[in-house]
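Case study.
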Amino acid sequence: MARAQPSSPARDSARLVPISIAGRVPRVALVGAPNTGKTSLFNALTGFRRHVANYPGVTVDVAEGPIRGLPTRIDLLDLPGCYSLDAVAPDERVTVQVLQGAAHQRGAPEAILVVVDAADLRRTMFLAHQVLELGRPTVVALNMIDVARRRGLAIDCDALAKSLGCPVVAVCAPNPDTLPPLRAAIAAVLQAAPRENAKQPPARKESYADAAARRFREIDALLSGVMRQVGKAQIPWSERIDDWLTHRWFGFPLLLLVLFTIFQLLFVGAQPLTDGIDAGAQALSNFVAARLSDGPLRSLICDGLIGGVGGVVVFLPQIMLLFAAIAALEDCGYLARAAFMLDRPMRLIGLSGRTFIPLLSAFACAVPAILGARSIPHRGERFLTILLAPFMSCSARLPVYVLFIAAFVPDQRLLGGVVGVQGLVMFAMYLVGAMAAIPLAWLIRRTVLRGAAAPFVLELPSYQRPRLRAIYERVIAAAREFLWRAGTLIVIVNLIVWALAYFPRSTATAQRIAAEPGFAAESDEVRAARLQAAYLEDSYLGRVGHWIEPAVRPIGWDWRIGMAAAAAFPAREVVIGTMGTIFGLGADQDESSTSLRDALRSATWPDGRRLITLPTALSIMVFFALCAQCSSTLVVMGRELRSWRWPVISFIGMTTIAYLGSWVVFNVAAALLHA
Amino acid sequence: MHRKPATTPLVDLPIGTRASVRALRETDPAARRLMELGVVPGAAIELTGYAPLGGAIRVRLGGHQIALRREEAALIEIRLGSWNEDVADAAGSGPTGDGTGATVASSAARVFAA
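After joint prediction, the assembly is written out as follows.
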């Protein structure tokens, strides 16, 4: 991003002498209150080269990266945002731990870079004021100086530096021209002799409120003569928008409209890309099939690999779109407003509005949602958020919905073509998990996690244009994770399922089928199809499947669906691949257009009835909506709650709820359709 | 504008009410977070809206907005009619500005000293 500018970083730092503290790379801790642009500044300084720092003692990953454009290496540590050093939430405690030198063999970082928001200086100085009392080499970065200027504020950096007793550099993180002075200042404080506990704060006996009030008084004194209102200050446009977006009457319908639009968009927006990938996988499969003779190898490649992995990769566009939408909503500041509006309903189930943010991100993936719950100070609320996150319909469930909705829900439009039935069913699937979570949360809050309601105090950051770079990063990370899983876990599970479904393929089966009356009279195509079906029935998978079939019959499934679902317990999106493998093997190999959708549509019970009708499709979708089919989520849950008991309870509970839910939906839908 | 300063908890007030924080019931665990967010004695505070389904309010404190529940708002004791434009401006985004370039932070400091 940094281009050759009049003041290039190299020239600015040329006058620096190399720094080395006891022969080691110095580390600078980056701290700041939430919404001060701390992470943007980290990315601007390090050029997105981050990796997880080695902090074995802490529960939150601390990112670390070398600062660009300096002659010697200085590492910047991105610590979790916090409002003060009197931390309450688990992630804030990490910041305090690292600053105090705990959790790392080398002790505290050599210097501290505090970010403050120039446009909201008085409040964000609170943390800086505390950090300066630590008496360690410190630089203050006055971020968002451009916003402050637009609000008519003039800030005298030199005067502020003098009154704070440390370098103060005005920056605007997205603008690389503003960064060289900050880099130089960081290098300079590291070179200066460490001022050990330069001004130890006198020990005072005062209440927290008195201390806070004193701090703000001191901040006001520091800022006097430093900050001036030169232009006309206006009410930020962000607040005027809020009058509409969180309006007493329009706010809530608008929120529902935003969420509903995202789900409609997932279906419509990603369709061309999805179709393209689907066609590509099909073409590849045909290409390979035409060049290999019939046998295990062709089946392995076409059914096991291309059919399985291709079936999963097809959903990449939709998953990327969902992550992009949630990242954009969060980045622009709307999610905080949604939390504000939803506090009342969330409260009815013993949660507060702030849990809405991790829970909404669980719609993309439960793992980051569970990790995100670290910012919740209230312990009971944090527990409950973690337990409920897997109920939110994550992006790995999306393929299941898309597949079954596209295949079995009629493509009709309502209300003059604006609302599609398929989109509506999709929206309903997303609600299923949330609806199941409501009574459950209520129950847990009244039994296991009793206690006073969590308080709700949340900053509403100013609206900003979503930063494309931040969204891009999130989407790419999600896509990479998804493809990695498709390439590893899903391939392995698929290959096992393929092998179990393909072998033993004994000649006894072929002879038995050939001996059936009327077989010889059938056309070649029908004979081939019946033979494939018989091979599958007699496979190892088929034998186990028949054994479990009684368990899944009540929810409208046959053994093939049951086995595909059972194979999906390590990761739910596996089911697409296993269904592709199982139903592909059962189908005629020579027919070229056997997409999974068609294979599922044409699958039948042994008596010739259609296997999957609308009630069965709904039953499958509800099962996947409610079941805990994700090993990563359970592992992360156990790690975060520091107990294996919760994931076990969660797994058993969710599987039971999923089964009951499917049973109800299947029977109700079947009764309605036949009525 | 209110002539007589009246002290009241920050609940059941009309949107647009401006006041200054007089005290905070600090025994409550939420009080600490409120203070970190700038709700300290002397701060200028403005009620900017109610949540659509009730329960929560949003308030402006100088340059930023926060959302809080009725229960947490009840912890905040305010003094009506003591809204000081300078206090609001000092925090970065007051509704008015006279353009004279007066040092607003110093007048804010005077308010606190008073």
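Observations recorded in class. Chain A touches chain B through 69 residues (CB under 8 Å). DSSP finds 30 helices and twelve strands in chain A. We will return to this complex in the next lecture.
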